[in-house]
Amino acid sequence: MPSLSSAPDDLVLRLADVSLGYGDVSILRDISLNVRRGQVVALMGGSGSGKTTLLRAATGQIKARAGVVSLFNQDLAQVTGDQLQTLRQKMGVLFQQGALFTDLNVFENVAFPLREHTKLSPSELLARVLDKLEAVGLRTAAHLKVSEISGGMARRVALARAVVLEPELVLYDEPFAGLDPISLGITARLIRSLSDRLGCASVVITHDITESFAIADHVYLIGQGAIKAHGTPTTLGNSPDPYVQQFLKGEPDGPVPFDYPSTPKFESWLKQQEARR
Ligand SMILES: Nc1ncnc2c1ncn2[C@@H]1O[C@H](COP(=O)(O)OP(=O)(O)OP(=O)(O)O)[C@@H](O)[C@H]1O
After folding, report:
1. Ligand 1 pocket: which of 44, 49, 173 to mutate (most atoms <8 Å of CB)?
2. 140 CB contacts (<8 Å, ≥6 apart)?
3. Sign of the torsion formed by the C-alpha atoms of 227, 231, 233 and 237
4. Quick one: pLDDT at residue 135?
5. Residue 79 contacts residue 130 (beta carbons within 8 Å)
6. If exposure means fewest CB atoms within 10 Å of the residue's CB, which of 3, 44, 165, 201 is most exposed?
7. Alpha carbons 155 and 57: distance in angstroms, whole number
8. 172-184: b or e for each residue (b if 16 or more CB lie within 10 Å)?
9. pLDDT in tens, 92-143
C-alpha cells in the first residue's frame, strides 16, 4: 500500500494507484495525481471518461476500490463520517449548475455558507461577503435579486459562494460550460486569481483546452479508463503522443474513442429488446 507518511504538507489532494467504479463496472484504474497548495490543476477528457467520478472520489462520495485517496493528508478510507464533514469544510465545490437560491438576493446567496458554518459578527459577515463579491467583480450587485442578474453573473455569484469560506481546495465541475467567449475568459482568469489570492488549490474539470491551458499549472488527460498523459500545458502541447495531439486538436479520427464501450449489461438488454420484437 502506498505510504502517506512522507506526503509533504503542501499536498492538498493525492490519489495513489486509485481504481474507481460503480456496481460491477470499472471506470478508472491506476489513477495517481497530486494537487498542491496554490496550484490550478485541470482534469480533461472526453465525455464519460470519468472526470466527475474522480471528483466524487476526492470528496469522499464514492470509495476507491484500490489505492489511496488522501485529502489534506488524511486517507479517506480511514476517516469517520464526522471527520469527513470537517475535511469537506476546507473544500469548496462549484457544481456544473452552480444553482443559486432564487428567493435570496446576491448578497444572501454568498452569505449563506457563512451563516451555516461560522459565527461571524454581522459586520465581519458583511465585509467577507463584499470582499468575495468584489473578487468576482460584483460588489455593486449585492442587493440585486437572482432574477435580475444574467446567467454569466449568476455563475460569478456561485463562484463567490464557493470560495466564501476561504477553502483550501476548490473543485470546479465544468465551470465554463455554456458561457460566451468573454464570460469564459473572465471566469477562467477569476479561477486563477482566486487561487492566487486565497492561496488555495483548484481542480478544474473542463473540456475547454484554450482556457484551461492558459490558467493551469498542471493538466491531466483522462481517457480509456486511465490517465493517458499529464504535465504542464507546454509539455502536453509539445507532446508527440497521437492521443494527446488528437485530443488537443479535436480531430475526429485517431486513437480517442468516440463510441461508448459495450458492456455485458448492454448486450443482455439488447437481446431482451430484440426477443420482444
Ligand atoms: N452513479 C453512477 N452509476 C453508474 N454509472 C455511472 C454513475 N455515474 C457515472 N457513471 C458512469 O461512469 C462513467 C464516467 O462518468 P463521469 O460522469 O465520471 O464522466 P465525465 O468524464 O464527467 O463525463 P462528462 O464530461 O460527459 O460529464 C460513464 O460511463 C457513466 O455512465
Report:
1. 49
2. none
3. negative
4. 85
5. no
6. 3
7. 24
8. bbbbbeebeeebb
9. 888 776 689 989 999 999 999 999 989 999 999 999 999 999 988 899 999 9
User: What is the distance between the alpha carbons of residues 82 and 87, in angstroms, rounded to a whole number?
Assistant: 9
**CA 209–ligand 1 middle distance (angstroms):** 20
- Grade residue 1 by pLDDT with cuts at 50, 70 and 90: very low
CA of 52 to the centre of ligand 1 (A): 7
What are the pLDDT digits (tens) for 170-225?
Answer: 999 888 877 778 778 888 988 998 899 888 999 999 888 888 899 999 999 998 89
CA distance 103 to 146: 8
In short, whether 3's Cβ falls inside 6 Å of ligand 1 is no
Ligand 1 proximity of 266 Cβ (cutoff 6 Å): no
At 54, list the grid cell: 474522480
Which stretches within the chain are classed as H helix? 51-58, 81-88, 106-117, 122-135, 151-163, 181-198, 209-215, 233-237, 242-249, 264-276
Task: Break the chain into its structural domains and give their ranges.
Answer: 96-166
pLDDT in tens, 57-70: 999 999 999 999 99
